[in-house]
Amino acid sequence: MGTYKILVTGGKGFIGRHLVAELRRRGHEVWACDLTHSGDENYIRCDVSKYRQVERIFEEHKFDYVYHLAAEYGRWNGEDYYENLWMTNVVGTKNIIRMQERKRFRMIFFSSAEVYGDYEGVMSEDVMVNNPIKDTYQMNDYAITKWVGELMCMNSAKMYGTETVRVRPVNCYGPGEHYTPYRGFIPKFIYHALFNKPYVVYKGHRRIIDYIDDSVRTFANIVDNFIPGEVYNVAGRPEWEKDIKEYSDLVLKYVGRDDSIVIYKEAEPFTTKVKRIDCSKAIRDLKHDPKVPPEEGIKRTVEWMKRYYGVGGD
Q1: Which helix (H) or strand (E) covers residue 29, if one does?
Q2: What confidence category does residue 128 fall into, taking pLDDT thresholds of 50, 70 and 90?
Q3: Helix, strand, or coil here: 294?
Q4: Cα separation of 65 and 43, whole Å?
Q5: Mean pLDDT estimate for the chain
Q6: For residue 207, what is the enclosing H or E element?
Q7: Handedness of CA 235, 240, 246, 250 (dihedral sign)
Q8: Is 236 exposed, middle or buried, given 0-12, 13-18 or 19+ CB atoms closer than 10 A?
């Protein structure tokens, strides 16, 4: 296990911050880039959709690995701000790939389990290879841009011999994820419960979530067992899968509220009801070993958000 010089794009995002910290703990020289100005050490401002800004980084530094996380996140964000979504997720990824073709670094590309769309079976990585696109219909632009990113990585590998590993995270959550209306359901539920604001829970949807520390430990392991062309699901343990209402109930329990603020509705249209994720490849190759169950992870996340927002339950 060597030490490497690594760039994390989107290094100030929720996953990016934790990944940078984990890689540094392991002794790697880690640089981060993101949209904001910052005085942080080993940080470079860069909008990945601007080729000149991307090129500037790689003219000044030689990296062994690039973790490409920079992306516009989320289905509804991608509907409301689709220009930003396509520019960052597609053009931005193409810019990084162009630099990869010139500089020959190895890349870890962050896709999403959203690429599986409304596929009704167990979501193993080869679903995207063995099924017609109509059976894995991506129901939103966010999912489509992530699949386009994967296709570009595979195309570059074939045409230029670039080496990339793709990962498909699944509902990663935990401390450090600030609330916005476009984030996942865990921070949304917690924020609303903390401020006694109503929120909607759709019945009949089941999900699996993965605590941030567990996710980034697996992501950081990739550089020690890099297999070009591989793709990995990264999710919590199958036995931790729960109905969305169960997650809501846990949030209310730890915040200290009853469910009078919850509006229950029937299944949300255009949204997969059950996502069953197969992580056996990540367990085999990357030592994926989730340790924090939802009960503990949600409790930790509630405590962090209470401190961050300076509030508690009534």
Answers
A1: strand 29-34
A2: confident
A3: helix
A4: 16
A5: 93
A6: strand 206-207
A7: negative
A8: buried
Please check whether residue 43 is in contact with residue 84, taking contact to mean a CB–CB distance below 8 angstroms.
no
What would the two tokens of residue 290 be? Answer: 């989730």
Which residue shows structure tokens 């509006």? Answer: 263
Percent of the chain residues past pLDDT 70, beyond the cut: 95
| Dist. CA 66–CA 104, nearest whole Å | 10
Cβ atoms 114, 75 nearer than 8 A: yes
- Of 66, 128, 140, 138, the residue nearest 101 (C-alpha): 66
Question: CA 6, CA 223: separation in Å to the nearest integer?
Answer: 10
Counted residue by residue, the chain has a size of 314
Helices (H) and strands (E) in the chain, counts: 12, 15
pLDDT in tens, 196-248: 999 999 988 889 999 999 999 999 999 999 999 999 999 999 999 999 999 99
Supply the pLDDT for residue 132: 62
- Enter the tokens of residue 56: 């500037």
Q: What is the pLDDT of residue 125?
A: 86
As given in the structure block, the two tokens for residue 44 are 């470079």
Give me the phi and psi of 173, to 5 degrees please. -145, 170
Residue 38, token pair as written in the block: 């910052």
Say how far apart CA 115 and CA 287 lie, in whole Å: 23
Q: How far is CA 84 from CA 49, 89, 110, 179, 291, in A?
A: 9, 8, 17, 20, 35
Please write the tens of the pLDDT for every residue from 16-37. 999 999 999 999 999 999 999 9
Tokens 């030490």, residue? 3
Using alpha carbons, select from 166, 148, 288, 152 the residue that is nearest to residue 229: 166
**How many CB atoms lie under 10 A from the CB of residue 119?**
18
Whether residue 276 has pLDDT greater than 90: no
Strand partners, 45: 34
What is the pLDDT, as a whole number, of residue 267?
A: 79
Global model pTM greater than 0.85: yes
